[in-house]
Amino acid sequence: MSQFLAHNAWLVPFFPLLGSFIVVVAAKWLREQSHLPIVAGIALSFLVSFSLWMVAGPDVTSPAIEWLTISGFNVPIQFRLDGLTTMMLAMVTFVATLIAVFASGYMAGDPGYPRFFALIGLFVFSMTGLVLSNNYVLTYLFWEGVGVCSYMLVGFWHSKPSAAAAAKKAFLVNRIGDFGFAIAIFWLWSASINHDVSYGNVLSRENLDQLGPAAIMGISFLLFWGATAKSAQVPLYVWLPDAMEGPTPVSALIHAATMVTAGVYLIARSTPLLVRAHEVQALVAVIGCLTALLSATIALTQTDLKRVMAYSTVSQLGFMFMGLGAGVNNVAQLAVFAAMFHLFTHAFFKALLFLASGSVMHAMGNVIDMRRFSGLRHRLPITHLTFAAGGLALAGFPLTAGFWSKDEILLALKHAAHQAEPGWGGIYVAVYWIAVLTAFMTAFYTGRAYFLTFWGPEKLPSPQDPEALAEAVDEVDHGSSHTEHDHGHDAGHGHDGHHVGQESPPIMTYPLMILAVCALIVGLIFGPTGLFEHHLHLTLGYEHLGHLEAHGADWLVMLMGSLAAILGLGLSYLFYAHRSPIPAQLAERLRPLYLASYNKFWIDEIYEKAVVGTTLLLAEISAIFDMVIDAIVRGIAYLPRWLGGAGLAPFQNGLVQFYAGVTAMGVAFLLIIVLFWL
Cβ distance 573 to 454 under 8 Å? Predict the structure, then answer.
C-alpha cells in the first residue's frame, strides 16, 4: 500500500493543474461555476496528501523519471515523501481548499472569475511541486512557478495602477533573492559528489564532510539570501505589504500557507548543511529578529486592517527564522521543530485572519480602513467570533495554537544562548528578549485591530468620512481612479441581494468557522502530544542533527510568553475597547516615533530614492553610453563603405589613359624618393 501511494504522489500537484486546465478550456461554459474544478482538484490533492502523511519516511521517494541530462549532469523528476514534505503538503492543500471555497463567494460577479481560479490552481500546483521536489533544481523550477503565479494574482486587477505596481514590485524583489538561490545551486553542483544536487546526496554526511569550510559558508549564505526574498525578511520584505492590492483570498493564500513559507521550508530542508555554518545561523536569527521587531513596530499604527495583517505576517516569518537560526549544536532538532511548528499553526490562524478581514471588507462595501467603521460585532457575529479566535492564536494566548508554537521558538532561543559557540551566546540572549518584546507588541496590535473593528459605538462607512473625502481629493490630485476596484475589488462583490452591514453568506463563513476551530485546538493536538515532532523526525537528515537529552515544558518560558500575550491584549482592551484618549495623547507626545511607525519608517521612500532612483540613473547613463557605442560601431561600418564608394570610386572610372597617367605619376614619385632620400 505504501509503495502504491509513493508511486502516485504525482497526483498531489496534478489535480490542481488539471482543474486549471479544465477552467481554461471550459471557461466559456463554466463561467460562475469556474471554482468547482479548482475546489475539487485541491480537495482531492489534500486527500492524497493526507494519505501520504501515513507513509512518510526519511528515505521514501517516488520513482525517478528522466528529465534533464547534460554531459553527465542528471536531474530527474522525483518526489521526496519524508516528514517535512508530507506535513507541508497536508497543511498547504487543506488551507488552500478552504480559501478556494471562501473565494467562490468573495469573487462572485467579478468579470475575471474564471481567470482567478485558473491562477489559484496553477499556484497550488507550483507550491505542492516545490515541497515535493527531491532536488534543488526541481525545487528552483517550482520556486519560479510560485513567483510567476503570485505576480499574476497580486496584479489580478491589472487595470488598477497600484495593483500593477505591487505585482511588479513583488516580482522584481523576488528575483533578487532568486539570483542568490541560483548561484547556490551552481555551487552545489560543482562541489557535491558526482555533481548530484538531489537532497539525498547534498545533505548526506559523506558529501557534507567533503565540502570545504568556504563552500559550506558560501552555499549556506546564498540559500539564506534566496529565502530572504521569498519569505520577506529584512531588507527584502518590502514587496509583501504591497501585495495587499490583490484580492483578499490571494492575500490569505500567499501570506498564510504557501509562497511566503517557501523560504522557511528551504532553510529547514537545508538545515543539515546550515548547522555547520555557525555564523550563518547567527545571521539567520538576527535578521529574523530585526524583521519581527521592525514589522511589529509598523503594525502598531496602521489603519488598514489587511495591512496590519500583512505586517503581522512579516513579523511572524521573522519568528520562524529566529527559530531556525537557533539551531546550533544540540539545539538543531528543537530549532527546526519550533520553526516548522510555528509555520504550521500560523497557516491556520493567519489564513483565518485574512479571510475574516475580507469578510469585514465585503460587509463594509470594500472599505478596509478601521477609522471608518467600528462596533461590528453585532452585525457580523460569525466574522467577529472567528476573528477573535484567530487574534487570540496570533497573540499567543494560553492554550491557543500560537501559544504552543511561539513558546517553542522562545525555548529554542533560550537553549541556543547556552549551546552556542563561545562569544555567540550573547547574540541569542538579545534575540530572545527582543522576541519576548515582539510577542507583547504582536498581542497589542492584534487586540487593537480587533477592538477598533468590532467594539465601540457602531459605525458604518459613509462618503462623508474625513478619510473618504481625503482619498477622493488624492484621486483627483493624482489622476488615479478607484471607482472600478476600490482596494482591489468592485463595489458589492457582485453578490445579488447582499447589502452593506450584513454578515457574509455561508459559503464564506463556513471556512472561517473551520479555520477558527483549527486556530484554537491544532496547537494542543499536535504540540504537547508530540505528534508533530514525531512526524518531523521522519525527515531526511533530521536524525543526524544535534538534540537535547530532554526538553520538557519550561515553565519560565511559558510564563514569559503568556504574560506578553495577556499584557498586550489587556493594554489594547484598555486603550481601544472603550475608545480611551490615551492613544491620541501618546501619539501627540511621541509624535516623531508615531509618524515614523505610521509612515513605515519611510523605507519605501528610501528604496525609491536609493535603489529605484539609482537604477534609473544607471539606465540613463547606459542609454547614453549605448548611443556613443552605437555611433562608433556605425562609423566603423560606414568607413569601408565610404572608401569603397565616394573615396575610391573616382579612381575606378574604366579609362585606360587615366590608369596610364596615374601609373606614370606613381613611377615618377618612386624615382624621386630613390634619388633624393636614399
Answer: no
